[in-house]
Amino acid sequence: MIWINLAATLVAVALTMAATMAYALRTNNQSIVDSVWGLGFVVVAIVSFVLSLASGEGNLARSLLALVLTAIWGVRLGAYIHHRNRGKGEDPRYAAMLRQNTGPVVPFVLRRIYLPQGAVMWFVSLPVQIAMFQPQPLNVFTWLGVAFWIVGFAFEAIGDAQLARFKADPANEGRVMDQGLWAWTRHPNYFGDAAVWWGLFLIALGTPWALVTIVCPWLMTYLLISKSGKALTEKRMARSKGQEYVDYVNRTSGFFPLPPRQRS
Question: 22-35 pLDDT, tens per residue?
Fold first, then answer.
């Protein structure tokens, strides 16, 4: 049944990305895909949960745990990004990407945005899919995974809330956020995201063969550090914030939370 589930979730992700692309093209705003990112994982979790129930192959407690934790993470992330982006128009990243296009827009955005993001979404979600079909009772890895998830979700949600509150104060215009969790890591949201997915991987470890999905949280962590998350953010911040950001980098951990170093 797991093979049927993999095919069904692949179709679900394709339909989610297709609907998102259609809406983005109609509104001339590709940024909507960022709001849908977390919700796409929720769709995958729901489809997998329903199919696991129908097959009777999984452990209900593990399946419910994977569903609930994925849904909490995905809905919060989607709601936060939607609220953050509302009324701001096209994200500069996508605007710059679209300026590179010299042909029809549909194949371009499909190739550059929706196919890559859909493929990553399906692949990274494999631990959630596998967890739904693990018949073994909950074990020590399950609870270790829950602990990882709690730490990750707290860093991501609290970090986002602290940054939103900081930006909402006009007195902080042009300043670097270096308070709260942001004093311990320059990217509490990205660290939290990575920890969430390592937690979901551990929850999937009902049997040794589920270890193959370790590449999924590893890929998410790699992307968050080296590609779409930390790397891009730090390039933008270095250009816009100047010496203040250099000083912040010198005293604050780049990813994993550590006590801040003394100001020089």
Answer: 999 999 999 999 99
